[in-house]
Amino acid sequence: MERGAWRDNMEFLRQVQTVEERRSRVKMDADMWNVALFNLCEAHGDARELCAAAAYLSEGKAPAGWEERLEWRKGKRGFGPCWFEVTMEHVYHHVNYAWNCRHAGAERAIKCSMRDFNRWEKFPKDWPELWPSPERWEGRWPKGRWAEHGWRTVRAAAMRPEFEEAEDALGLLVDGVFLRLGDGLDPARRRPERLRADAWAVSEEDFGALVRRFYGHFNAAWNARRCRKAGGGGRDRWLFPREMARFWPESGKLPKVGEKGSHRATERQRRRGEGGG
User: Which sequence spans correspond to the domains of the chain?
Assistant: First the structure.
């Protein structure tokens, strides 16, 4: 499929209202669009670097404009699995935050109590199709961190197309928010010299459609990390990753971090030789 071909389905995605959109009549004002823009820009910057790193590892050469950055990254700490894991967590955090706090009000979002911070950085519950069913995942906890299996070129090749689609959706959203804000843009944030030709001033419905599209492909990138070809990962590849327990709501279907049976608890048991896998 040609990159960006999913945009043909934008009208359908706009019509799919989320659970929260159906409940809420609150609309985002300029201040909240600025809060969302800050988080989306942070996420988009890392998403672009993930795309470039995946291309570098799969092709052996850096994309144009990324040579110096990737050579610096390779010489400093390299592109180890831990770097990919932490960078993807950072992207998830900012997109989750931008989406979950969009109706909170600017004052509350800027003050951001610890309770709000912990709630807003979780995976959103608005799209049930991205959540796993308990029956399907029962007894399938990962044994150790995926980083232990190493990062190979073939894995980068499998993740690269999903990274690119996720970055494409996120980049279109960022430029669309710039266009929507117009004169309402925060003076502290500089408008890019050139926006994408296919961008438009996004509405709240477009916001939800593009974030939903981002999640699908970014989740697929994570779940394809062990696959030998693009498009691998089976029917579960669109689902939120079960390994990132910090983003699961406390009332979610998976154990909290540190509880018996959770991913990190299993990892600690394994290191201590207590039979955690």
Answer: 26-123+140-242
Identify the sign of the CA torsion 93, 95, 100, 105: positive
Exposed, middle or buried, 274 (CB in 10 Å: 0-12/13-18/19+)? exposed
**Residue with the two structure tokens 């770097």:** 83
| Close Cβ partners of 229 (under 8 Å, ≥ 6 residues apart) | 154, 157, 158
DSSP string, 23-59: H------HHHHHHHHHHHHHHHHHHHHHHHHHHHHHH
Residue 152 CA to residue 149 CA, distance in Å, equals: 9
Within its chain, how far is the Cα of 41 from the centroid?
12
Pair of tokens at residue 157: 């090749």
> Tens of pLDDT along 52-70?
998 888 888 888 888 888 8
Q: DSSP code of 74?
A: H
Q: What whole-number distance in Å separates Cα of residue 12 and Cα of residue 18?
A: 13
Tracing tokens 């928010």 back to the chain, one arrives at 177
Q: What is the per-residue burial (b if ≥16 Cβ within 10 Å, else e) of 112-144?
A: eeeebeebbbbbbebbeebebeeeeeeeebeee
Global pTM exceeds 0.90: no
Helices 30-59, 204-223: axis angle to 10 degrees equals 30
Give the three-state DSSP class for 207. Answer: helix
> What pLDDT digit, counting tens, does each position of 123-174 carry?
998 888 888 765 554 444 444 444 444 444 447 888 889 999 999 999 999 9
233 neighbors 223 (Cβ within 8 angstroms): yes
